[in-house]
Amino acid sequence: MICPECKSEYKTHITQCADCKVTLVDAMALDLPLENIKWESLAPFDGIVFAEMAGEILTKEKIPYFIKSDVLSTTFSIEGTSMPGVTRIFVPEELKEKAALLVESITGSKNE
Questions:
Q1: Is residue 23 part of a domain?
Q2: Which positions ≥6 away from 2 have C-beta within 8 Å?
Q3: CA-CA distances (angstroms) from residue 15 to 8, 48, 56, 84?
Q4: What is the CATH number of the domain that holds 101?
Q5: Directed axis angle between helix 96-107 and helix 48-60, to 10°?
Q6: Considering only CA atoms, which of 44, 57, 34 is closest in space to residue 86?
Q7: For residue 49, is it within any domain?
Q8: Res 73 pLDDT > 50
Q9: Inter-residue contact 103 to 89 (CB < 8 Å)
Q10: C-alpha span between 45 and 18 (Å, rounded)
Q11: Which residues make Cβ contacts (< 8 Å) with residue 69, sequence separation at least 6?
Q12: Is the pLDDT of residue 61 over 80?
């Protein structure tokens, strides 16, 4: 597992970067070095809980991703479903359309 921000490597059972607090991506799912991947954001989620649910769907489909929350959520470790703030999922550009279709089941709306 690799952190998409700081590029640190972790063992497979670890899911979040200790320094950046973002979800790790599976190194085996990536064909390019992380610095060569163009990451695209899906539509924002209201809270980390829904973003993590969407992340589970992306994991099952072997789509690499990472989650980034706003400063309020990450600073105070707030993880409610309806807390104010924005949480985003980033996926490789070439998989954005497929990922957006998959996460519609969590958001209930088009994720453009």
A1: no
A2: 8, 9, 10, 24, 25, 26, 27, 30, 34
A3: 12, 14, 11, 24
A4: 3.30.70.790
A5: 130
A6: 44
A7: yes
A8: no
A9: yes
A10: 22
A11: 21, 48, 51, 85, 86, 87, 88
A12: yes
